[in-house]
Design a protein that fits this description.
Helices cover about 65% and strands about 0% of the residues. The protein has about 130 residues and is mostly helical.
Length: about 130
């Protein structure tokens, strides 16, 4: 593994832990932040695999665009297309006034994050 590849994974893990902390906070939970960091974690895992496989990393938050690049080598990830579409909305829209994530939305996104992270750690990155 290259140093940059490992850095993508470390940054993804940082976003994972931040999402979990913001979601679980007893006092002042921040559901918008939890959802944003969930999206960021998934984005960085996708970019880690793209980097590992020699792709130029596109500057995008659109998870389905990143997914399309990975499908030839990781076709089983297609099952996440609808989930990635949902997650992509949290990259920008929910960071500004006008949109806020509810506790229920955050719970759904955190559960999605856990599934995607497990998939990447067990199937995609384990093959390295």
């Amino acid at each position: 593994m290259s140093a940059i590849h490992l850095e993508w994974i470390e940054k993804a893990e940082g976003d994972y832990h931040t999402a979990m902390r913001d979601y679980r906070a007893r006092k002042y939970p921040n559901y918008d932040s939890a959802c944003f960091h969930a999206q960021q974690c998934c984005e960085k895992y996708l970019k880690a695999v793209l980097q590992r496989d020699g792709f130029i990393i596109p500057k995008t938050h659109d998870l389905n665009l990143l997914l399309d690049l990975l499908l030839p080598s990781q076709p089983f990830l297609e099952v996440y297309r609808n989930d990635f579409k949902k997650l992509t909305a949290y990259a920008v829209e929910f960071r500004y006034p006008g949109e806020s994530a509810s506790k229920e939305e955050a719970e759904e996104i955190i559960n999605l994050l856990k599934r995607v992270r497990k998939e990447f750690r067990s199937k995609v990155l384990a093959a390295e």
